[in-house]
Structure formats: C-alpha cells, structure tokens
Amino acid sequence: EIRVSGSLTRHYSPRAKVEIEAQVNKGDGFIALSDIETPTGAIRLAAPESINDYGRVLYSALRSGDTQNLARIVVIPPQGDGLAAAIRDRISRASA
Fold it and tell me: How far apart are CA 95 and CA 46, in angstroms?
C-alpha cells in the first residue's frame, strides 16, 4: 500500500479544535493570510504572505497551537483554485 501525505482522512489533526471561519474568541489561535487582521485577543499562529506560504506553514502553525495548549484554532482558508483548494482540503481534514 502506498501512502501519500494528506491522503488519510485526518492527516494531521491537532488536539485543539479547528474551526473554519468561526467567530474568534479571546485566547483562540488564529491562522489567516497576512492581509487579514488578527482579531482582538486572538493568538496569531501564522500570517502567510501567499498561498504557497500558507501551504508551507499550515501544519507547523497547527502544531504551534498544540504546543501552546490552545483549546481552539480559527482558520480563515485561502480562496481560489489549485493549491488554495488543496489547502482548504487539508484544513477541513484537520477540523474533522
């Protein structure tokens, strides 16, 4: 059996609850493109400059949330096709 990174249903799911485009509460982790402002009280885990950057830092940002023992991480996925769609798929798997 050949295993491809990202092919498992849950690939990498952090202990923190991952919520997509949810209301951000004080103390929540936050991952979004750099042009999206960090909500008040949120802990910015990643502010990627581009979609390529987003793909590169997503898992380390999720792991950083676990290292900080965050209960919840709110993610604003990138829009678009190609790599952005693949990143949205990874995010939805992480939130499973």
Answer: 17
Q: Which of 84, 86, 35, 33 is nearest to 61 (CA)?
A: 33
Buried-state track 86-95, b at ≥16 Cβ within 10 A, e below 16 = ebbebbebbb
Residues 12-30 have pLDDT tens digits of 678 899 999 999 999 999 9
Q: Which distant-in-sequence residues (6+ apart) come within 8 Å of 83 by Cβ? A: 51, 52, 55
Q: Are 72 and 16 a contacting pair, CB within 8 Å? A: yes
pTM of the model: 0.87
Torsion of CA 83, 87, 93, 94, to 10 degrees: 150
